[in-house]
Amino acid sequence: MKKYLNTIFVTTQGAYLFKDGETVAVKVEDEVKMRVPVHTIGGIVCFGQVSCSPPLMGFCAENNVAVSFLTENGYFLAKVQGYISGNVLLRREHYRQADDQKSSTAIAKAILMSKFANCRTVLQRARRDHAEKIDDEGLKKISARLSWSLKELERDMSLDALRGLEGDTAHAYFSAFDHLIVNQKEDFFFRERSRRPPDSPSRTAFPASPSAGSGATA
C-alpha cells in the first residue's frame, strides 16, 4: 500500500523557509512558526511572496519533496524537484501506445469508464443520504444520463467521439453540483466551473484532494 505524506501550503506573505537539521522550518518576521520533519512531507506549495533557502531546496530534492511556487491567486510558476530515475524501455512503449489508435482508444475508454462510474456513485450516494434535502428527481435524471454514457462506452468509438462524450457527461455531472450542497445554501452555492482563481465572492481556494494526504498550512 502506498503511503501518502503531508503537503505544506505556505500562504503567509513574507514567509521564509529554511533547513533546520532534519526539519523544514517556516519563519515569519524573524519568528519560527513551525518545524516539520522532512520524512513526513510529500510536498511544499508556496503562494505569493514566499521564499526558500537554497540549502532547503537541495535538502528537499534529496528527500523527494517537491517544492512548488504559485502566485498568490494560485497560478503555477515553477517547481523544484530532485533527480527522477526513468526506464527508457517503458517510455518507448508509452510512445508506441500513444501512436497506436486502437491502444489509445482502449486506454481512453478504461479511464472514462472509471470517471463516469465514480461520478454516478457520488450522485447515488447523495440521493441515498440526503433524499429529504435535495432535488431527488433531478439527480435521478442526471444519474440516468451517466448510466447512458457508460453504456455508450461499449460501442466502437473514435478518440474524438470519446472526447465529445466526456465533455457532454462532464457538463451533466457538474450541473448537479448545486443540488449536492445541503447546508448554507444562501452563502455557498455552485453555478458553473471556474478556475484561477475560483470565481466566488470570497475567492476561496479549495484544499488539495484527499488523495494527496493531509495538509498543513502556514
Describe this structure in words.
The chain has 218 residues and is an alpha/beta fold. Helices cover 40% and strands 21% of the residues. The strands form 2 sheets. It has a 5-stranded mixed β-sheet, covered by helices on one side. Strands 4-3-2-6 form a 4-stranded mixed β-sheet. Helix 3 runs antiparallel to helix 4 (136-152), helix 3 runs parallel beside helix 5 and helix 4 packs antiparallel against helix 5. The model is unreliable at 202-215 (pLDDT under 50).
Could you give a short description of this structure?
The chain is α/β, with parallel strands linked by helices. The chain is 40% helix and 21% strand. β7 and β8 form a beta hairpin.
For the structure shown, list the relevant keywords.
single chain; 218 residues; alpha/beta; Ribosomal Protein L15, Chain: K, domain 2; five-stranded mixed sheet; four-stranded mixed sheet; 6 helices; flat
Order of strands across the main sheet: 8-7-5-1-9
> What's the mean pLDDT score?
84
Major sheet summary line: 5 strands, mixed
Work out the radius of gyration. 22 Å
Helix share, percent: 25-40%
Helix and strand pattern: EEEEEEHEEHHHHHE
How many strand units?
A: 9
Shape: flat
State the separation between the terminal residues, measured CA to CA: 29 Å
Question: What is the oligomer described by this structure?
Answer: single chain
What percent strand? 15-25%
Low-pLDDT stretches: 202-215
Number of spatially distinct domains: 2
User: How many DSSP helices?
Assistant: 6
Alpha-beta content class:
alpha/beta
